[in-house]
């Protein structure tokens, strides 16, 4: 069991480290492609931060397909758990973190406990998440023919493509300047990094994340067998906590600096991504039959999204303390999960 824990920690560290280096390269690549600053932040950087938790279900499902029937059940559980875990965490615990941060920095923030954001843009993101995630989750509750699931997956991918197109067309400036230096190319010695070096850093980090995800899936399967907890539940809770939540601590820094649009957009943009592309993988490559605990996580994620929408519809700025309700939803899930395991 000790070896399994070490393997899990090291694999997650490799995934997160590679994702950090990947984001550096993909932002520079976006700048060289002459994309607007807003597009680089909202699309390329968002994809980079979403890759760690997305690589886990991808590797689990591809590994199952290569290994055959014997490994498909456990891998399918891990894949579904990781797919559902990210949007669940973003809509609940990540919102709680935003609320706590605003309260903690209220004396140094110009806006105090109010979060001043573009309600129209954020509202579109959250509404997009709510509709897409509800449709995809519904397909896992109601028995549907395979061809219907394939059609839904195609529609979800198309919906994200529309979102990307609209973001690029809208353009706009980011509150944060992109990086100038490629991490793995010291400009002080070798000069400005050529484009091939930027591309090599992108591809190399993808390979590292793939290997890290492979070993994480193996560790989850071993831990599930050793302690008797369903592999899907471990992936649902642990994968987003270890990969998604640390990245959202960027929002804490931005809230401290009164960059509210950037801080909240970091979360709402990730919710859009997680409600479309990873979910489409589940529809295409798993049986996508959601058990009780998975359905409960979906309900709470949608409740978290509905809470944010309700707050956005109120007059005036978004009230940070009201986002603490996301923590209540996350605690309710943990309580039910523990009760389910003990029963």
Tell me about this structure.
- The protein is mainly α and 343 residues long.
- It has a single domain, classed as A middle domain of Talin 1, CATH 1.20.1420.30.
- Helix content is 79%, strand content 1%.
- It has 13 helices and two strands.
- It has helices at residues 2-32, 37-67, 69-91, 93-104, 119-141, 146-170, 187-190, 195-227, 231-256, 260-274, 277-285, 292-313, 325-342, and strands spanning 114-115, 318-319.
- The protein has a two-stranded antiparallel ribbon with strand order 1-2.
- The relative contact order is 0.22.
Compact description:
The protein has 343 residues and is mostly helical. 79% of the residues lie in helices and 1% in strands. The chain has one domain (2-342): NCX, central ion-binding region (A middle domain of Talin 1, Up-down Bundle), CATH 1.20.1420.30.
What characteristics describe this protein?
2 strands, mainly alpha, 343 residues, 13 helices, A middle domain of Talin 1, two-stranded antiparallel sheet, globular
Order of helices and strands: HHHHEHHHHHHHHEH
**Shape descriptor:** globular
Domain unit count: 1
Q: Which structural class matches the secondary elements?
A: mainly alpha
* Rg value: 20 Å
Q: What topology, given as strand order, has the largest sheet?
A: 1-2
- The N- to C-terminal Cα distance equals 24 Å
Characterize the main sheet: 2 strands, antiparallel
